[in-house]
UniProtKB/TrEMBL annotation:
This is Adenosylmethionine-8-amino-7-oxononanoate aminotransferase. Pathway: Cofactor biosynthesis; biotin biosynthesis; 7,8-diaminononanoate from 8-amino-7-oxononanoate (SAM route): step 1/1. Homodimer. It comes from the Bacteria. Signal peptide: none annotated. The modification N6-(pyridoxal phosphate)lysine is found at K270. It is an enzyme of class 2 (transferase). The keyword Cell wall biogenesis/degradation does not apply. It catalyses: (8S)-8-amino-7-oxononanoate + S-adenosyl-L-methionine = S-adenosyl-4-methylsulfanyl-2-oxobutanoate + (7R,8S)-7,8-diammoniononanoate. Its main location: cytoplasm. Substrate binds at W54, Y147, K270, G304, R395. GO terms for molecular function: adenosylmethionine-8-amino-7-oxononanoate transaminase activity. Its EC number is 2.6.1.62. The lineage of its organism: Bacteria, Pseudomonadati, Bacteroidota, Cytophagia, Cytophagales.
């Protein structure tokens, strides 16, 4: 039976959306179909998905190879509890991933999203030291402006900011380092050396090479390798949060491939299933796993989820991984990387642009509105609306606008995205500084 109201109106009557002030937000755009790099709305409007739907989609929407693998799995086994049981897809996925990850990674622990993958990693570190008779080691080192998720442990090791302020009293204390962006490496190393003298430090968690929600802030593999080396000398464990950077986003399959010193624990989600189903996993080195082995059941890792290692999600991940490892995907990523590099060369240093950052298929343009960089920049909504009016899906981080497209995005489609970024520069150049705006228009 047809409905008398639109899908967006029905949504507004019953749903609560993430990161959204529901009282003032416009009605959501109702998407009914996906095709390649495009999302098709209820009214037939096509939107180019420039950010892979929050960084999850690798190979395009409704990919037939992933759909076929999921359909086959649904007709075989949809789910089985993962305590005391196992199934082929979970074993196959773990085997294939461990063969691709740094050689020190030895075990896979399944969960269901990026935040829970991080929660598992934090609990592994804390209980590792507890089981080793060092319960005083419970402090984590993190980067300023980092983001690791929205559950409580993940929030605790993320930046303290407006999004987490109501929960500050409930977050455990961590210590923050400056990000070692080019030119600041010595400062960060000095901060790290001072912290590693403390007897309570347990782990160092980081987004390798790219801090996503900080504005795609980038730093180099060499300095991260040196930081990990110093952590290991002090007995501190390293956690690589590859939730965003994994599965080819930074060039190689994993950002950690570019390091000479490897993390002890790694976290994955987002592109893990090619954007098809929710899934997370955490891998660890053998000594960490072995610290939980005992005749004492209380030394086990007591963590799990109802949908741990869901067979359908594992099947989607296996299909996506097969596509990612194919030569065609490597060529797609290299093509996008080259196109981003050419655009960066074109616009870097132009008026209205403060910086352009690029690694792999990730491109970020930091516009200069004559005020500081901020997630709550007055430009954000203007940028967003300009993109939507151009039939492009972008989610600006304040005055930083980034592209992180599906790998199937064509050169012609990339040019549509670059054209929007050029128009954003024109918007910035004509944007009134805050000092000239009426008071009621200030943030």
């Amino acid at each position: 039976m047809p409905h008398s109201t639109s899908l967006a109106q029905r949504d507004h009557a019953v749903l609560w959306h993430p990161y959204t002030q529901m009282q003032t937000a416009p009605l959501p755009i109702p998407i009914v179909r996906g095709e390649g790099s495009w999302l098709i709305a209820e009214d037939g409007t096509r939107y180019l998905d420039a950010i892979a739907s929050w960084w999850v989609n690798l190979h395009g929407h409704s990919h037939p190879a992933i759909a076929a693998r999921v359909s086959e799995q649904l007709r075989t086994l949809e789910h089985v509890l993962f305590a005391g049981f196992t199934h082929p897809a979970a074993v196959e996925l773990a085997e294939q991933l461990l063969a691709l990850l740094p050689a020190n990674q030895a075990r896979v622990f399944y969960s269901d999203n990026g935040s829970t993958a991080v929660e598992v990693a934090l609990k592994m570190v804390l209980q590792y030291f507890h089981n080793q008779g060092q319960p005083e080691r419970r402090t984590f080192i993190c980067f300023q402006n980092s983001y690791h998720g929205d559950t409580f442990g993940a929030m605790a090791v993320s930046a303290r900011g407006a999004f987490t302020e109501p929960f500050w009293p409930l977050l455990f204390d961590v210590v923050f380092l400056d990000v070692p962006v080019p030119g600041q490496e010595a400062v960060t190393l000095a901060q790290l050396d001072a912290l590693l003298l403390r007897p309570d430090v347990a782990g160092f968690i980081f987004e390798p090479l790219v801090l996503g929600t900080a504005g795609m802030v980038m730093y180099e593999p060499g300095i991260l390798s040196e930081m990990l080396r110093r952590c290991h000398q002090a007995g501190v464990l390293g956690i690589a949060d590859e939730v965003m950077t994994g599965f080819g986003r930074t060039g190689p399959l994993f950002a950690s491939e570019l390091l000479t010193e490897q993390p002890d624990i790694m976290c994955f989600s987002k592109g893990l299933t090619g954007g098809t189903l929710a899934m997370g996993l955490t891998t660890c080195a053998a000594p960490i796993y072995e610290a939980f082995l005992s005749h004492d059941k209380m030394r086990a890792l007591f963590h799990g989820h109802s949908y741990t290692a869901n067979p359908v999600a594992c099947a989607a991940a296996l299909a996506s991984l097969e596509l990612t490892r194919a030569e065609e995907c490597t060529q797609q990523r290299q093509r996008i990387e080259a196109a981003h590099a050419a655009f960066r060369q074109e616009v870097e240093g132009q008026p209205g642009i403060r910086a352009v950052r690029h690694r792999g298929t990730i491109l970020a343009v930091e516009y200069d509105p004559g005020e500081g960089t901020s997630y709550f920049s007055r430009l954000r909504d203007a940028f967003y609306q300009l993109a939507i009016d151009s039939h492009v899906v972008l989610r600006p981080l304040g005055n930083v606008v980034y592209l992180l497209p599906p790998y199937c995005t064509s050169n012609a489609e990339l040019e549509l995205l670059y054209a929007v970024l050029r128009r954003m520069r024109e918007l910035v150049l004509n944007f009134a500084p805050a000092s000239t705006l009426p008071e009621y228009l200030h943030d």
